[in-house]
Amino acid sequence: MYVRRKIRPAVVLKFAWKNILLSTLWAAIVVFVYQELSDHKLHIGIPFLPLSTIGIAVAFYVGFKNNQAYDRFWEGRKIWGGIVNYSRTWANQVLSYMDCSPQLSKDEMLVIQERLVKRHLSWINALRIQLRATTIFDRENLTYVPSFSLENDRDCKDHISKYIANDEYERVMDKFNPATHLNRLQGQDLAMLRKNGSINDFQHINLMDTLAEFYNLQGMCERIKSTPFPRQFAYFSSLFVWIFVLLLPFGMVEEFNDIQDGNIVWLTVPFSALVAWVFNSMEVIGDNSEDPFENYINDVPMSAICRTIERDLLQLIDEDPANIPEKVQPVNDILL
Predict the structure, then answer these.
(1) 8 A C-beta contact, residue 43 and residue 281
(2) In the beta sheet, which residues pair with residue 334?
(3) Which residues in the chain come in under a pLDDT of 50?
(4) What pLDDT was estimated at residue 197?
(5) What Å distances lie between residue 95 and 41, 111, 112, 214, CA to CA?
(6) Domain map (residue ranges) of the chain
(7) Please, are residues 272 and 237 in contact by the beta-carbon 8 Å criterion?
(8) CA 82, CA 73: separation in Å to the nearest integer?
């Protein structure tokens, strides 16, 4: 997620330079051909009124697409906000319910509490890595995706293994959905605690309800990840923008030719490039917002959110401060 209030010009240029170059070159060709044909009483210019009507329609269509794309991002961020809240609830329940258990010695209680809390930290990191199993760089439905040299989050398996035992790690990573099986292990421990009387029925149900909420939140993330943005909206939005951009110089050259006897007709080039950049930018914004879990510049900062949960929960179980990771900081104004 880009966190700087004003986007740096270098970032804007990374997305825009190719479109600006192509639209400038295309407008220059149109003006040149227009001037060459004008002596032969042939005009390739078109009236600006129908062109402006097309532009208005395209702007409405792209605006609708961008609203829907932003809704996907915002839903993803709300889901991860829920994961933060329920993670704290989970740790509080584990620490509160087992703290009053007469069936457990203090050492046994601390071991189980630590296992349940740390396994949850493995779950959030496993979920994050699963959601980033494919990244925006793997997708072919985007017109242009500039590189920002971001960390490849798919290789961070040590974020999972450091919080669980080796045998558990090997067992869950052998599954198609490790996050699901990590929560299943949590459920097994709760069943064991209920069976030996360490927690009562109410506490067991309460803890299982929290686990169920984790499954719900995971499923919501997987729904966004596995359901692509409707291609009928994304494809035709891009197509309409390009049709408008290609027609734009034909309308502008006619307008500028009617001003000052055609002496400023070459102003068609910069103004066409400017308008084309505006429309292409709107299209690119939507394209880069529709998949919020791709480990890219505009996505939900799941690494930072996971680190926040880790820091909170490790402090709740009185972990050695030396073992508590530092807060994730933005790199080049990008928070992952």
Answers:
(1) no
(2) 2, 331
(3) none
(4) 85
(5) 86, 11, 10, 18
(6) 9-323
(7) no
(8) 14
The residue whose two tokens read 């709107």 is: 282
The residue behind tokens 């069936």 is 103
Backbone dihedral region for residue 105 (phi beyond 0: left; psi -120 to 50: alpha; all else: beta): beta
> DSSP code of 325?
P
Tokens read off for 299: 């996505």
User: How many Å apart are CA 336 and CA 334, to the nearest integer?
Assistant: 6
What is the C-alpha separation between 43 and 215, in angstroms, rounded? 64
Q: What is the b/e burial string over 72-96, where b = at least 16 CB atoms within 10 angstroms of the residue's CB?
A: bbebbbebbeebeebbeebbebbbe
| Nearby residues of 154 by Cβ (< 8 Å), 6 or more positions away | 129, 132, 133, 135, 295
- Beta-carbon contacts of 285 under 8 Å, excluding residues fewer than 6 positions away, are 66, 69
From the number of C-beta atoms within 10 Å of its C-beta (0-12, 13-18, 19+), residue 238 rates as buried
Tokens linked to 295: 């480990």
Predicted structure pTM score: 0.89
Q: Which of 194, 235, 227 is nearest to 211 (CA)?
A: 194
Which of 120, 185, 126, 131 lies closest to 158 in space, CA to CA? 126
pLDDT at 42: 64
CA distance 70 to 17: 24
160 burial class (0-12, 13-18, 19+ CB within 10 angstroms)? buried
The mean predicted confidence, pLDDT, of the chain is 87
Question: Are 87 and 311 a contacting pair, CB within 8 Å?
Answer: no
Residue 94 · residue 79 · CB < 8 Å:
no
